[in-house]
Input
Amino acid sequence: MPWSYATQMISRLILPFQRIIMYFLTGKSELERIIANRSLPFPSRVYQIEHSINFTSSKSLDSEIEQAKLDQKKSLVHDQLYVVIHKLELYQKLMKQIEEIRLTKVTSTDEKHIELFEKIWTRLITQNDDDHEEMKMFTKRWTKIGFQSANPLTDFRGMGLLGLQCIEYLSRDRTACLTYVNIPPPNDYSFAIGVINVISWLVYLLETDPSMKVNSHPLLTHFSIYPCNLDEFFRLFLLIFQEWHEFWTDQEANIMQFEQLSKRFRAQLLVECQQWRPIQRGFSKRVSK
Output
């Protein structure tokens, strides 16, 4: 019998007695103690609630969520448990929204997609006041802002419509965005491809990471404090992209170092997610040398 399995079985045998003892000592159930502990960061509280339910109930966490929503009791436990569950539901809804957008293929026939391309063209491609060329879907001019070929559609395969929306979102602040696009060589990087990479890092952090036991949703702390919706997701994307751009320019790097530097940046980004607080500006200065 593997040691891990034996340890798990012993824990299951001991845990009920431990909970009885703690109840007599504190007068509170385990859920009451978890909820009353205000020092617990939100993701840790979610993990402990889920762990408690898994050990004491044959139902899944989703079943317990539905039961808590239907329960008419007005005890502190049920009220506070509902708050936690409501935030989890909003987070799961956001994950689903992002995934649906990401899986939407960018095409040259969808009017909404064309509209986004036209906005990007007007703000970033025709940078001179005397440049009034109408947008073309297939032209080498797209490579000016970092697409890999005259057909920008091929670069969205990984992030789909989400990648296009993020480029358009950044282009709303035309002045700032042109500083991202017009980095002088040899320190320039492909802006459009850079955006798609950065949003892929954020999507990865939004999803569940089973290797992280206590903080399996790295962005859960951020979205438990700030609104858990698409507007906040894009605001967070902007913050992270700004940090990435500043980090890149500080390194005076070239495109051949993109993978190496992105690994270091992503490692620090994950560290920021593990600090039990929202992601804040300035974290790129803490990236390891």
About this structure: The chain has a mean pLDDT of 81. Residues 76-102 form the longest helix (27 residues). Residues 8 and 14 are 10 Å apart (CA to CA). The two ends are 45 Å apart (CA to CA).
